[in-house]
């Protein structure tokens, strides 16, 4: 079983927080981006992928879902 590099997961989490702090999106968009970034980082870490890229993709997907749910 592959070990998760906690430093990379932490970096991805902090980057996700920084990305949602730059603008004033709606609450669901923020929550979706945060959950997506965390989920993407964890899934990428477990499967052996790039944690930062996984967090970025997760943040975009989660933010988009949150934005759509606000409409």
UniProtKB/TrEMBL annotation:
The keyword RNA-binding does not apply. Residues 1-23 form the signal peptide. Residues 28-69 form the YMGG-like Gly-zipper domain. Keywords: Signal. InterPro entries: Gly-zipper_YMGG. The keyword Signal applies. It holds the Pfam family Gly-zipper_YMGG. This is YMGG-like glycine zipper-containing protein.
């Amino acid at each position: 079983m592959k070990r998760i590099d906690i430093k990379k997961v932490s970096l991805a989490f902090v980057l996700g927080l920084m990305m949602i702090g730059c603008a004033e999106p709606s609450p669901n968009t923020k929550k979706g981006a945060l959950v997506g970034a965390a989920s993407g980082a964890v899934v990428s870490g477990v499967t052996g992928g790039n944690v930062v890229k996984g967090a970025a993709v997760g943040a975009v997907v989660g933010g988009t879902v949150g934005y759509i749910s606000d409409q």
